[in-house]
Write a structure and sequence with these properties.
- It is a single chain.
- The chain is elongated.
- The protein starts with a helix and ends in a 7-residue tail after the last strand.
- It is built from three helices and two strands; from the N terminus they run H-H-H-E-E.
- By secondary structure, the chain is mainly alpha-helical.
- The chain has a domain of 38 residues.
- The protein has a two-stranded antiparallel sheet with strand order 1-2.
Amino acid sequence: MSLTTDEVKKIAHLARLGIDKQDIESYAKDLSGILDLMARMGELNTDGIEPMAHPMDQVQRLRADVVTEQDNREKFQAIAPQVEAGLYLVPKVIE
């Protein structure tokens, strides 16, 4: 797909980008190349190819989901200024 200079100007206007007049031709060439690459990639047969989250086939290390701290809720609420039904009461800050 080949973009014209008028199309590049329109795209720049829609994206609110300022492009110098002498650069419009090179932008048209570069953007046309990108669109051609995307078109060629769209034609590739990807049947049987599994999607991947990372190209290096890495796995994220996760820690075990276990409780490591004590429940200090009663202790903390005992020193709170205002508590009701297990909830902290705070002053209204938004009208």
